[in-house]
Prior knowledge:
The structure is a single chain. The protein has 2 domains: about 15-145 and about 190-200 and about 230-235, Undecaprenyl pyrophosphate synthetase, CATH 3.40.1180; about 145-185, no CATH class. Helix 5 (about 120-130) links the parallel strand 3 (about 105-110) and strand 4. The chain is of the alpha/beta class. It starts with a helix and ends in a 9-residue tail after the last helix. Helix content is about 45%, strand content about 15%. It has helices at about 5-10, 30-35, 40-60, 80-100, 120-130, 145-165, 175-180, 225-235; strands at about 20-25, 65-70, 105-110, 140-145, 190-195, 215.
Amino acid sequence: MSDEACSDQQSAPLGAVPRHIAIIMDGNGRWATQQGLPRIVGHEKGAESVRESIAACAEAGVAYLTLYAFSKENWLRPREEVSGLMVLLNRFLLDNTEDLKAKNIRLQAIGRLTDLPTSCQVALHRAIEATAACSGLTVILALSYSGRIEIVDGIRSLLREVEMGHLDKGMIDPETFSKHLYTRYYPDPDLVLRTSGEMRISNFLLWQISYAEIIFMSKLWPEFRKADLWSAIDEFSKRQRRYGGI
């Protein structure tokens, strides 16, 4: 999909809309470097793209939007950048919770959330509580998230059930295992988007995206706008999902 085509898509898509979209928001640092700015400025600019994506999904009728906001591996970045990202997360939650509630948008989160600084955990908990009754779009932030660790945690949860006698190991199947993942309350993504031109999934929702359609875009995340998401949905509506069949 060309980025030029995205700029022409100015209205919400009319074709089939995915129930669940997941986005790997990549390119903040590169965008800042290209502008001769500190990397944290790219992350600040990327927050605008988050708001654009939420609005675009709400207008298009998407039910779930999962945003890969901070991976488990991101803790390995320079301390100054990590601290700046946590400040931005805290600010985003404080600044946007009331707006999300007013727009009937529910906020949720997955990942090793206890890894987050206490201030972020408090702000996240308050945002989740404040929007719990909202019945429109559900926005899921993946924070300190790792697809491999999620699967390991799921296995541990299953083993506990077996050891406690609540589950017969012979009954374990993919559906049972899915109920022990962080995402057990949500449907699997139908569409995965990744910006910045990188063509990999970077340990994101490894179990859940087995049959998702994937679209890679060369545009850097701070440049991503409503029209880009609507254009991706339009492309999704033209694909045939066979799930291994004919």
